[in-house]
Structure formats: structure tokens, C-alpha cells
Amino acid sequence: MVTTLTPLEAELLELAGSVPDPELPVLTLRELGVVRAVHARGADTVEVELTPTYTGCPAVEAMSLDIERVLREHGVREVTVRRVLAPAWSTDDITDEGRRKLREFGIAPPRVRTASSGPVPVELGVTRTRETRPEEDADPVRCPHCGSAETELLSRFSSTACKALRRCLACREPFDHFKEL
Amino acid sequence: MTTTPAKDTAHAAAALALGDDALVLSHRLGEWAGHAPVLEEEVALANIALDLLGQARVLLSMVGDEDELAYLREERAFRNLQLVEQPNGDFAHTIARQLFFSAHQYLLYGELAAGNGPFAPLAGKAVKETAYHRDHAEQWTLRLGDGTDESHARMQRAVDALWRHTGEMFQPVEGLDVDWIGLETVWLEWVSEVLRRATLTVPEGPRTGAWTAGAGRQGLHTEPFGRMLAEMQHLHRSHPGATW
């Protein structure tokens, strides 16, 4: 999405992006990759485009309120946060800095998926078996505590829909893994 | 919540059908909170319910006010499949319902995402969530079917009981440009393969026609649905406009 930003829009985008994620406060919304655009309509009216990580993510409302508050504090009178779904957010939108912070926070970051853009293919391999599961491929989920590649899946869904619960077989610590989406 | 108004009545009708599927199944899965066999499943089912609720909110907002649609409609105005309103039963019943529905939803959203109709943005997002729901149901079907004698018997009973509700998923929905026959063929192949791998028998009973279910899209629902709605709607109806 390449658009020309005015200096004001660039400044407001920076501000909106600096808001911490309400659930993972170590990350900013920019690092999470959910602030899509800022459009200034006149001197004191601004529209922000926000995309949810998951369709039902309850944090979106808190994010919207936080963005509105920060921009109002900066003197913008009218702030509208618009929710956009397309193109769908992907864990590839999390920045490298965001991944590093997740790991330091004790959450295994999502692995980078290649060629994930474009239409979603309907992959219905009838012979698909456990052996081809993503967690068993060449890019293992590493323990964020000790770095071991020997980890096992405990539950596909953890404290939130975007995370899975895993356990390290080396240091025995359970940990959350930000699932690839 | 920002809404995209449905351009015409056919699209609104389709949004209502898909939105009601997601809303009703979300509520059913939410009923497991506090009752799931293990904590991990409690969390998993609630998370799947939350994904579905998010999809329902987007879809119902394309039709009108999401709260009014969810809480103030009568039973006959709901357009969900009869499959999703079926009671949770034991854990195997819930997993069979998940297997059948999430495989269907995954294919349907995949097809809608590839098009450029009004549902493409949501479908492109939701298909990725649904892939995890389908995977969850598949893994549990294998584990229960190929587990103990007891789990095998219960999983088979659940698959047999819900089989007659599966034909309805492929009745064409007005406003959706979908190859329903192709969808059903792929669905049947995939589900049959999972059941076989789970050492279960693919039911031989009918999926369409007499003695099967299938008028949810026309507003006819099964007996347990009224009680589910009463529980889902009672707070909103008893305290109109209440906030906390």
C-alpha cells in the first residue's frame, strides 16, 4: 500500500503506531503491523485505518480508543478509527523488532511464511497427515527461554486465539507461541 | 464497528445466513465454558467461539444492527443451518459437528475469498482462522476414533447422529456465487478420508431428501434451538439498553 503521506499524516501515523498493544504491551501497534493508514481530512479531522489480527479479536476496541485518545491529546479534534479487513492481516506483518520483543517477553514469535500473499488457496490434500504439519517441518518453533528446537504442542489454542501452548522438552518450561496466520 | 452495507437484498440474505451460522455455533461452543473435559479444550473451544463471533459481527453488520439481529429476532427469522444449532451432546458430538461444519466453512470461505464479491475481504481473513478450527476437529476425530473402545464408539455414534444434517450445508444460498456441487464433492472426499483414518465408518444414511434435516435456511429449526435462543436473548430482552 504505497500512498504519499503529508508531513502531518506521517507524524500522526507515527503517533498512532506508537500506541502499545493492549494485550501484549511490549509491542506497539506499528510493530504488530495493524495500523494501515492515516488520512488527514482538513486541519483537525483524521481517519485511521486499523486491521484486526483475528476477526473476533476483542483488543480492537481498546486499540481504537487508545489511538483516538493519543491523537486527541495531540490536538486532533475529530478522530475516526475505521476497521479494514482486506488485505487480511498476517503474522508476516509483525516487524523484526516486534518478533525480537515477543521472544524477550517469553512468547515464541511466528515463523515467517513465504508466498502468503494473494488469494488463499483451498488446499485439501486428502492424504495430508500429521507428518506434514507445520510444526514438524524444517523450521521448528524454538523455546523463547532456552532456544531449544525440541518443543512440543500442548494445545492449538492458548490464552488467546492467536497463540498456541507449547512446552520445551529441554528446559521443560511451557510457553506461548504466536501462531502463523 | 464500521459496517459495509449490503448492496442488495440477495447479498443481505446471504450475509444473514452465514452470520447466523457463525453466531449460533459460537453460542453453542461457548456453552462448554466451565464444562470442557480438560482446561486446554475449554480454552480452545472458547477461542473458536470467539473467532466465529467476530465473523458473525462483521456479517450481521452488513445486514443491520448486530445486537438487534442477534438478540431481538424470533426463532423463525434465523437462517442458520440446523447442524450448528444441535446441542453439544458429549465431547464427541461437539467434535463431529466441528469437523463437518469447519470443513464446509473452510471450503466456502476459500471460494468466496478467491472471488471479488462483497464477502471476499471477510472470507480472506476468516479462512485462515477456520483452517485452525478444521485442524483442531480433525486431530480430535483421529484421537477419539482411533482411541479406546469407548471413545471410538462415542465418536462413531456422534458421526452417525449428525450425518443427516450435512446435506443442508450444500443447498445453494441466494447471493453467493459458489459451485455448490463441487464444494460438496470435495467436502465429502475430505471428511470420508478423515473418518477412515480415524478407523471410523463413513455413515451410509442419507444426507438429503426425506428423513434428513435441512430447512434452517428457510427459518425452520429443530426443537432445541428455541431453548438456546431463550438463554442467549433473555438478558438483552429483560434489560433493554442495559450497559455495564
Can you walk me through this structure?
The complex is a heterodimer of chains A (181) and B (244). Chain A contains 4 helices and 7 strands; from the N terminus they run H-H-E-E-H-E-H-E-E-E-E. Chain A is of the alpha/beta class and 181 residues long. Among the domains of chain A are: 7-83, GMP Synthetase, Chain A, domain 3, CATH 3.30.300.130; 134-181, no CATH class. Chain A has a 4-stranded mixed sheet with strand order 4-7-6-5. Chain A has a 3-stranded mixed sheet with strand order 1-2-3. In chain A, strand 5 and strand 6 form a beta hairpin. The longest helix of chain A is centred in the middle third of the chain and has 15 residues, at 59-73. Chain A is elongated. Mean pLDDT of chain A is 85; it is low at 116-136. In chain B, helix 5 (91-114) runs antiparallel to helix 6. Chain B is globular, with a radius of gyration of 17 Å. Chain A binds chain B through residues 52, 54-58, 82-90, 119-122, 124, 126-127, 129, 154-161, 165, 179, 181, and chain B through 1-2, 40-41, 43-44, 47-48, 50-55, 57-58, 106-107, 110-111, 113-114, 120-122, 124-129, 132, 135-136, 139, 186, 189-190, 193, 197.
The most extensive interface between chains reads:
A-B, 34 and 40 residues
- The percent of residues in helical segments of chain A reads 10-25%
Number of strands of chain A: 7
Query: How many DSSP-defined strands of chain B?
Result: 0
Q: What is the CATH-assigned architecture of one domain in chain A?
A: 2-Layer Sandwich
Biggest sheet: strand arrangement of chain A: 4-7-6-5
What structural class results from the helix and strand content of chain B? mainly alpha
Q: Quick one: biggest sheet of chain B?
A: none
What is the mean pLDDT of chain A? 85
Number of domains of chain B: 1
**What's the shape of chain B?**
globular
Task: Give the low-pLDDT segments of chain B.
Answer: none
- The CATH homologous superfamily of one domain in chain A is named Fe-S cluster assembly (FSCA)
Integer-rounded radius of gyration of chain B: 17 Å
